[in-house]
User: Fold these one by one.
Assistant:
Number 1:
Amino acid sequence: MSKKIILGISGSLRNARRGLGGHDLVQDLKNIGSREELDNYLTQEAQTHLKNFEEAGRTDELPFDEMYRNLKKAKGNKGLSNSEVALAAALWSVKEIGVDIDYLSLSEFYTESGTKDLTVLKEKIKNADGILISTPVYFGDRGSLVQTLINEIKRDDELHASIKNKIFAGIAVGAKRNGGQETALIYQLMDMMNLGMLGVGNDSETTSQYGGTGLAGDIGTMPKDTYGLNTAMGTGRRIARTVKMISMGEGKKLVNNPRVLFWILQDSNDKALKFVNNLPADFISEIDPEIINVSNKYIMRCIACDVCPTHIDLDEEYRCIIKSKKDDLEDIHKNLLDYDAIIPVVYSNKNATDFHSNYQRFLERTRYLRRGDYVFSDTVVAPLILEEIGTNDNMHIRVTTSMIRHHTVMYAPITIHTLNDVALNPQGLSENLKDLKNTIRDVSRGRLVSYSEEVNHLKYNPVGYVLSAVKDREDEKLSAREKMIENRIDRVKKIRSERIR
Ligand SMILES: Cc1cc2nc3c(=O)[nH]c(=O)nc-3n(C[C@H](O)[C@H](O)[C@H](O)COP(=O)(O)O)c2cc1C
């Protein structure tokens, strides 16, 4: 099996590295052996970047535009901007997982004077198995260089085809604590998924969110944000492990149909249910579908307890504190495990008559499954959104951002617009579902092979929940967690022996 490659793309307008400077960065990162060494390297490079600015005219108080022109004349072989520092940290973590790394700066190709020859950019993107974009936050969004790349991919069929079903993850660095790191990450994630990539966030060690979030404004300050660097590194590990996991299934065969679980979470007059029951036959006949109509169940509200899950136990155990007979989740729990894919289905309309939504309640109640060591880890999740045109409910984004926190592999939302109950864009649905089915097969094959060997990195880290953390340590004394992980491995091994050839 050839070594897989993650390409780190810098979307910074004041990035330090270009051309051979990017190559040198990759070599430097490959030679760094420890976190301490990495921290020293990043601090030194960030300081060098500050010096770059001083030499380009800051010391002489030159106007910024003049200084900027001087910087662009530099060789591009030393220093790192803030979002480049975060990217370098992530790439170092990628290589620590045993996946190869490459680097690309967008400003080298999209210059003030126009677009340069894109041969190298396209080659690097085509050669990569996963793409990690680090962007500065500009107006709560990804910067214009990233936007330019997105437009380029949309325009160029070959480039577009070359990223299909590859893995994407993002990092965003902003000057303020709530400067829009998360919005930038979400927009970038939605864009790249809509272009055909599979989205992942940061890893469970850094609490599985939307990617890396850095807090740094002034030049040279990113290395001080240890928390941000950790999330960037967690993003590097997550994308590397996902690529590696999928590659472990290459050459193997999934002998039966993928098991796909539909959650109908929001509906009106059974429109979503009917839609799912009438999905194209060529899709349904090649999966083993199971439907849970959550919209007509009784789902009690989460009580926001601080002991979630109630205890560490086997995945099969329902471990939410709510035990009311009225509540249907305990019953639903029995049918949540070991699917290859989950398709959350929601219907939205403008006049919410006969409208049943358990969407938010249900998602909140799945917290024990997330904190129970990420039961849905690496399951493919493909949101199916039915929306009366003009409703603008943002369900495609909400389902994606909630479900990615379950440490899943996200497939782009499939959105069907309706008017007077007629689907306006049914064209392409069959093709889309065929691609989804193939994706589920590829990811599941890799998951079943790799999970039967290594799942310890999925341990939930209850950051911000001190009570849980104390309880966690006690439970760990009882080896409950080890038992749970062992049981999970045994279960996956059994499934693997039945389903993988
Ligand atoms: C046009 C512009 C808009 C910006 N908007 C934001 C913003 O919305 N939120 C924020 O936190 N920082 C914002 N910043 C600050 C940058 O994100 C921050 O300085 C970052 O460290 C730059 O990364 P770089 O050094 O890799 O280019 C903005 C900067 C510029 C130039």
Number 2:
Amino acid sequence: MVSNLKTSSFVDEISAIPGGEGVRNCIQCGTCTASCPNADKMDHTPSELIAMARAGMKNEVLSSNAMWYCLSCYLCTVRCPRGIKQTDLMHALECLAVREGLSHGRTLTPAMYRSFNDFVYSLGSLPEMGFMTWFYMLTNPLRAIRMLPVAIRLFRHGRLNVKARRLTPQGTDQLRAILDKAESLGGVS
Ligand code: SF4
Ligand code: SF4
């Protein structure tokens, strides 16, 4: 009885996040896994993740590397016979993993999202140089030094913005209202 309660609460948690609604409709046909170009890098395949989620294996699901390897190619989504938006589900699991402090330790993607969010929220735009420098400071400052030659080449070809293009104060307010709304719907800032 206790285990049933735990199971339904994790599935409810996933279902409540936009993109996670379809988790109960899966028939475990494996089409999403067979379609996924990154399934071989995932510790649990997309269909396994759904089965584990429905079995209430919250910690195992949220500490998986699988969702962080999702390329958002949408192959699983367009091929699912049950109309489950597996791509959105993967991103819903990312949100939950970050919120619960269980995001997979070997991926830098949460730090990338954090850096992206900080810049967009405060400036309304993304100056690539500042964004990448901040990302490396959060993760591995030595890597920033190793990437310097690439940055210089990009800069010479006009592919690296150094200056932030700021929004008008009114535009900034509107963008923040959108981001706040996304957070209230389950996004993580
Ligand atoms: S393709 Fe759809 S129904 Fe089949 S296993 Fe994947 S999510 Fe479940
Ligand atoms: S959207 Fe993600 S989970 Fe789906 S097939 Fe592509 S990489 Fe795999």
Number 3:
Amino acid sequence: MGHPTRTRVGIVGAGPAGLLLARLLHLTGIDCVILERRDRTYVERRQRAGILEQSTVDALRSAGAADRLEREGTPHDGVELRFARRSLRLDFPSLTGGRRVWLYAQTELVKDLIALQQKEGPPLLFEARALAVEGNDGDRPLIRYAHAGREHTLVCDWVVGCDGYHGVTRHGMPEGVLRTYERGHPYSWFGILADAPPAYEELIYAHSERGFALASMRSAHVSRLYLQVPNGTDPEQWSDERVWNELDARLATRGGRRLHRGPITSKAVLPMRSSVTEPMAHGRIFLAGDAAHIVPPTGAKGLNLAAADAMVLGRAFAHLGATGSTELLDAYSDTCLRRVWRAEHFSNLMTSMLHLSPDQSEFDTRLQLSQLERLATSPHAAAELAANYAGLPVGGDAGGGGA
Ligand SMILES: Cc1cc2nc3c(=O)[nH]c(=O)nc-3n(C[C@H](O)[C@H](O)[C@H](O)COP(=O)(O)OP(=O)(O)OC[C@H]3O[C@@H](n4cnc5c(N)ncnc54)[C@H](O)[C@@H]3O)c2cc1C
């Protein structure tokens, strides 16, 4: 493909937000171009999220991008919480009036969207790094980008930055327009992938006196497991045996099963961050997904928020195309931020309920256990957690408000 120089919607970044938005625009006949700084293999192999909310699955279905997800994805009707060596299962359909989540790795979702895009369009340029977004005050914002050793310019009617936390689009907004609200966390997640069948059918979130652990999976043969570790932990300092022993110790219940062990194929430490940039749009430039907000992964919300932003924006552009009205585009930031802050609250709540802080006192631990106990004894408390985890519908006002 040559170098595109003109489009209606210029999209920076081919993660879940950019790819889904491009697909939705393509289906409504709106011309767009995606620029992605990495190569295709890198984008398709990047290990990240694995839980899709019902509304994300519904959006992929209506975008014609769910064939493989239907065959290979696994619906999960609940999660298990472990604390004080006990186990509590939350059943989503009965607590939420029928909602559930799906296990389908972000790598697979990204591969599906790229495969569709390569077959049907719109244009996607890999190894095309956006250098700057300019001209926000006029009618024709533009993206300056580098590809194959040369600089090019893509003139757009609208620009959408789906370029993640370190992206450049945000910097195209005039100074003083954006405000970022942030919170750091005093611990990280040490994540491993292992060629070992998962020992459990659903995700297990464990509170223990040794710190948090999460047992998840990527397929019937691959386990994905996480341990809370101090910030700055070097994964190479952890032998495989130490990792498995620590996971078993943190996930232990009275009489419970142990994990199936197998070769560990990947070890990485992921710092945790909470951040929201407001507003998510200014003039003709929009931000979507991680470019505008980051949540700690404990609530499994990052990928789903990115997909929700793409849905809201896809609908707003379709409305513009059908009616000529920018009403929904104008409402985009407010609409998304309601959902974003709900997800931030939920993700921070899950994080603080399950992790031990470095200065954790016995009093703090008692408070956490009381909160977990409340989930076991109050259907209302359990329903509130389940509604937030399974995800709020991306409905008419798309923000969903609170649950
Ligand atoms: C290491 C890691 C692990 C995670 N694990 C989980 C998890 O377990 N559960 C969970 O729910 N969430 C997880 N997340 C969060 C989730 O994966 C993200 O929220 C999701 O990827 C957001 O999608 P996005 O499209 O907004 O951004 P991204 O997926 O980050 O995509 C942004 C894209 O923009 C491209 N880009 C950046 N700058 C430029 C530029 N200048 N020009 C062109 N392209 C550019 C990038 O290469 C990238 O492809 C994790 C995130 C990370 C970073």
Number 4:
Amino acid sequence: MTRVEWVTISCDVCGSADHRLLFVKEGFRHVRCETCGMVFVNPRLAGHLDFQASSGTGSMGDDSLSPPQRQRLRKELSSMEPFRRLNRIMEVGAGRGWFLLEASRAGWETWAVEINSSALDYLRKIPVNNLVVEPAEEFHAPAASVDVVRMWDVIEHLESPRRAVAHIHRVLRPGGLLRLATTNFASLSRKVNGPEWVYLNGSDHIFLFEPDTIRKLLADAGFWDVKIRTRSFNLRRKLYHPEHEPALRWSLWRPFRKLIDETIRLTSFGHQMIVTAVKPE
Ligand SMILES: [Zn+2]
């Protein structure tokens, strides 16, 4: 049997070693930093990065995109147009490359940073101009060279969000845009589900941000104009024995889900945080 090794860490956001236990899920201790409030898995598995490279959920993404999904990516790209000066766009944790494929169709020079082996198989099949096979925390790319960096559902997987954001700040040109998404630990669905919240998966999701902590991380890295919005209410649960979960009556739930989704996007309690930040000129 393989021996499981653990690494105890300090808070990645503020460096403090003081934290208190919130709960244990599937053997993973989830703690909150006493100094800045960051929630993270501590200790974490020693082989976390290797796991992200070989499996994890790093390669997850849809096999194909529906027309509305493609439309959403195009809409997101058009919101980035005001930042296009050098004509370079980068995705950190590019997954299957759906976003970069659309970006390349829109005429951008594309950069992908990715370590997950199955994601790389996909990325090698699409017209990515520069494929950087290095972790987000230590990738190499010229300073001040890109207009926009996108990082979607990635930061919660990293060994050090702080180092990744510092690298992104370095590669962005002055005035460049970072746009990221991550789960919201302060969301209504997390409060309702407690430790059974579906996104609490200690082998994969080791940093659980909230609006206050992502704002601090980005401000400390030198970003300004940090804007946060949240969306969606996901009631799905994940238990240690998912086969024992009672099935939810989805057909009855669906109309309410739509209504709640529409309402929650007006608040800061949606389960997905979409964050933009700008590198000062
Ligand atoms: Zn902290």
